[in-house]
Design a protein that fits this description.
Layout: E1 3-6, H1 12-25, H2 37-50, E2 54-59, E3 62-71, E4 81-88, H3 97-111, E5 116-122, H4 126-134, E6 138-149, E7 152-162
Parallel strand pairs: 4-5
Antiparallel strand pairs: 1-2, 2-3, 3-4, 5-7, 6-7
Helix pairs in contact: 1-2
Length: 163
């Protein structure tokens, strides 16, 4: 049975593997180069210093997904807005793990006094778009051809949940 819990440093190798798969094989991350474990440590340290949680979904003692919130933009006036991220291991997709990872992000955002959650999603990622809609997110922006990956232009949608 899949359980969601707060991530620890011990989870970083599995988180890294999930994230790097997304970089190399999907348009969920608009990046080209896999990250290093040190980069993931710095990312995790920054989340902890800022007071933002990282969650993992665990099944049979294996991390099968992770989710996090963090600052939407660096300027002070955005301090009540966070951006979310949810990634599920490729062989575990379609099992509802993303849904399990979403609610803790929403709850944590409320507990932190956030006003809104924003999510940038590749316009062709119907599964993520539908999942966000189920949780009350609404599409608020559509950016055409803002990314270039796998020899094609990528469109990006922004969804928002006002808490």
């Amino acid at each position: 049975m899949v359980q969601v819990r707060l991530a620890t440093y011990n989870d970083l190798p599995a988180i890294l593997n999930i994230y790097n798969y997304a970089i190399l094989h999907t348009t969920a991350v608009y990046d080209y180069v896999p990250h290093t474990l040190e980069m993931r440590r710095q990312w995790f340290d920054t989340k902890m210093q800022q007071g933002f949680p990282v969650f993992v979904a665990e099944d049979n003692n294996e991390v099968v997904g992770f989710s996090a919130i963090g600052p939407f933009r660096a300027w002070a006036a955005y301090k009540h807005t966070v951006e979310n991220a949810i990634y599920v291991r490729a062989d575990q997709q379609g099992k509802g793990i993303g849904k399990l990872l979403m609610q803790p992000l929403i709850d944590a955002s409320r507990e932190l006094g956030m006003h809104t959650i924003v999510s940038g999603i590749d316009a062709n990622n119907e599964i993520s778009l539908k999942m966000h809609k189920r949780f009350g997110f609404e599409e608020v922006a559509y950016f055409k051809q803002v990314g270039w990956k796998f020899d094609k232009w990528l469109d990006l949608k922004f969804m928002q949940l006002i808490l």
